[in-house]
Amino acid sequence: MEAPPDNDVLWARSLHFTHPDGSPGLAGVSLGVRQGEILAVAGPRGSGKTTLLRCLSGQVPLREGEVWFNSAPVHTLGPMARERLRRDRFGWIDPEPVLIPELNVWENAALPLMLRGTGRRRAKAAAREWLDRLDVGDLARRRPRALRHAERQRVAVARALAPAPTVLFADEPTAPLHRSDRSQVLRMLTAAARSHGITVVLATHDPDTAALADRTVHLLDGRRVHTLQLPEVPDTEGRAACSLSA
Ligand SMILES: Nc1ncnc2c1ncn2[C@@H]1O[C@H](COP(=O)(O)OP(=O)(O)OP(=O)(O)O)[C@@H](O)[C@H]1O
Fold first, then answer.
1. Residue 239 reports pLDDT greater than 60
2. Average model confidence (pLDDT) for the chain?
3. Mutate which of 18, 21, 23, 29 to test ligand 1's pocket (most atoms within 8 Å of Cβ)?
4. pLDDT digit string, tens, across residues 87-134
5. Whose CA is nearest to atom 16 of ligand 1?
6. Residue ranges around ligand 1 (CB below 6 Å)
7. CA atoms within 13 A on the CB side of 224
8. Which of 58, 110, 127, 204 lies in disulfide reach of 82, CB 3.0 to 4.6 Å?
9. Ligand 1 atom closest to Cα of residue 222
C-alpha cells in the first residue's frame, strides 16, 4: 500500500462506488486535498459530488479504492473507528438543514462539541460565538421549528464550524439560502475556514460558489474530468468566432 504525499490532509486513490441498488456512484476518482485548502468539487446534478464527499468522509464503506486522512488509512477502518473519526475530526453541512427539533438553536450548534467531550459551558460559548457571526445569535433560545428555512441553514453552518473540524465537508451548503444571503454565508464560511486553518471540501454546481475555492475538481458521471480554460478574447473577436461557427 503506497502512502500519500505528506502535505495532503486527505488523499484518495481510485475510488469506485456502487449504490446498494446497483446505481453507479463513482468510477475511479483520485484526488488530494492539501492542509488548509478550500477545494470545490463541481459538476452537474447526479455527477457524484455527494457520493464522493460521503466516501472521503468515511460515511460509507469503500469496496474499491483508498482514502487516507493525515497519512493514515480510512478505508481499512471499521464502522466504529470511522464514526469516531467523523465525530472528532470532520464536520459536515448538508444541502438541507437537519436540526434536532427537541433542542433549541444553541444546543443544536453546541452538540458536536459536547459529543467530543467539551463541557456544556464552553460548548455553549463557542456555539453562541458562531451563531452571532452567522447573524442568528438572537435566535439562540428558539426551537428549530420557529426559524425560517434559511435561518436553520445558518444554524447548521454554525454547528459545523463551532468545533473547528480538521476537514469540513460542505455539500451545497448554501442551496436553501436566498441568492442575496448566499454569498454572505459563503464568504463567512470560507473566511472562517481560512482563519482557523480548516480544510474544506465543497460540493457545488454553482460556478460563483466554486470561484471562492482555491482549486476546483470537476466530476461527470462519477469520474474526474479536466476542463479547459480558454483564454479571454476581446468581445468582438468572440462574437466573430461565434458567427463563423454558426
Ligand atoms: N442512495 C442512492 N441510491 C441509488 N442511487 C443513488 C443514491 N444516491 C445517489 N444515487 C445516484 O448516484 C449518482 C450520483 O449521485 P450524487 O448524489 O452523488 O450526485 P451529485 O453530483 O451530488 O448530484 P446533486 O447535485 O443532485 O446532489 C446519481 O446517478 C444518483 O442518481
1. no
2. 89
3. 23
4. 999 999 999 999 999 999 999 999 999 999 999 999 999 999 999 999
5. 48
6. 19, 21, 23, 25, 43, 45-51, 203, 205
7. 16
8. 58
9. 14
pLDDT digits (tens, 9 = 90+) for 158-209: 999 999 999 999 999 988 788 888 888 898 899 989 999 999 999 998 888 8
Mean pLDDT on 215-227:
91
Domains (range + CATH), the chain: 8-228 (3.40.50.300)
DSSP state, 136? Answer: -
Order of strands, edge to edge, in the sheet holding 215-220? 90-93, 167-171, 199-204, 38-42, 215-220, 223-225
CB 188 within 8 A of CB 134: yes
Please tell me the predicted confidence (pLDDT) of residue 238. 45
By most ligand atoms within 8 Å of CB, the mutation choice from 15, 29, 45, 60 for ligand 1 is 45
pLDDT at 2: 66
Write phi, then psi, for 46 (nearest 5 degrees).
Answer: 80, 10
167-171 and 199-204 strand pairing: parallel
Total Cβ atoms within 10 A of residue 245: 6
- State the amino acid at position 171 in one-letter form: D
Candidates 65, 142, 134, 161; CA nearest to 102 is: 142
Atom of ligand 1 nearest to the CA of 95: 27
* ipTM passes above 0.90: yes
> How far apart (Å, rounded) are the C-alpha atoms in residues 127 and 138?
12
Task: Name the nearest CA neighbour of 204 among 189, 195, 217.
Answer: 217
- How does residue 3 score in pLDDT terms, banded at 50, 70 and 90? low
